[in-house]
């Protein structure tokens, strides 16, 4: 190659390509990280980095979106889980390695990128996105009556402290009268394993959280929960979908197996493999798949994902014009003024953001039902 290839190639390029080719032939998640990419990855786990704000993988030679990250250019541009990115600035990504494709997606903050997207069997369409510095706030929360809603967008070093603060704030807002928690892990691509374990531990009193098993029978590691539930035994509904991957699946699987939460939504992504980063001093690092994740019941997540307890597909809630005729609609009905006031209050409630998110609305309804049942029976959840 040195003497006869049509163009001059450096030894470093050849060696890096050889290493990367060897690793990427193993599975979609193994690969070589040049020094620049290795440093960017280290920055990403702290919750701040540059780019579009998407987690991607390779599938049959195509770059596939695992999930867009909330409030990033990719999410605002409407990219969705399972979208295929076919070209970048009219250059095809087909046949490139994942690292090469990601490098083409990156660029200076403020620069524009044009990508061609294939969604299901629809015609491909072009999207223009302005690259930006991605500052991830990994935990967001809000209150729906007495039900706390907590969304985790990714598992970084900020996640567990953010979760603790969110739960404390929700209790404070309700004067300690929270009735349930919705934990939203939809479109969460994962992140740090230790953060997934800490988040699971926050809701569990005891038991195994996850095990990792390598090639040798003796290469098994277990993570266990310690006593202490930050929600004090409140009922929990976890929302998952096809964009919930890796660390998200560890949390969902652990709380499902321990019957600590009800899972709602659609089957998760199914990334149940463990990657070990092996630094190569002065030459970046290699990312090597070394183990598989198993839920507490001994089920592998890999290529299976986590099945929800209650399947709720994504849908949009829209008001229907007209509707049924009731007593208050009749001319001269008794107490009509009181009914009109009640209708106005109901219309105001319909403006709640949860009303346009069908999966979230179903989760809230389930928790409200449990709360009503508790009041009727005088029983509590633990």
Distance between the termini: 68 Å
Helix content: 25-40%
The poorly predicted ranges are: none
Main sheet, how many strands, which sense, barrel? 6 strands, antiparallel
Number of helices: 9
The H/E string reads HEHEEEHEEHEEEEEHEHEEEHEEEEHH
Which structural class matches the secondary elements? Answer: alpha+beta
Q: What is the alpha-carbon Rg in Å?
A: 24 Å
* Approximate strand percentage: 25-35%
Number of strands: 19
Average pLDDT over all residues = 88
Shape: globular
Structure description:
- The protein is of the alpha+beta class.
- It has nine helices and 19 strands.
- Helix 5 packs parallel to helix 6 and helix 6 runs parallel beside helix 7 (247-257).
Give me a quick take on this structure.
The chain has nine helices and 19 strands. The chain has 382 residues and is of the alpha+beta class.
Keywords:
382 residues; alpha+beta; six-stranded antiparallel β-sheet
Secondary-structure blueprint:
Layout: H1 11-24, E1 31-33, H2 35-44, E2 48-51, E3 54-59, E4 62-68, H3 73-76, E5 84-88, E6 91-92, H4 98-105, E7 112-118, E8 125-130, E9 132-135, E10 139-144, E11 147-152, H5 159-173, E12 180-184, H6 193-203, E13 208-213, E14 220-224, E15 236-240, H7 247-257, E16 262-265, E17 273-279, E18 285-294, E19 310-311, H8 336-349, H9 358-377
Parallel strand pairs: 11-12, 12-15, 15-16, 16-19
Antiparallel strand pairs: 1-18, 2-9, 3-4, 4-5, 5-6, 5-7, 7-8, 10-11, 13-14, 13-18, 17-18
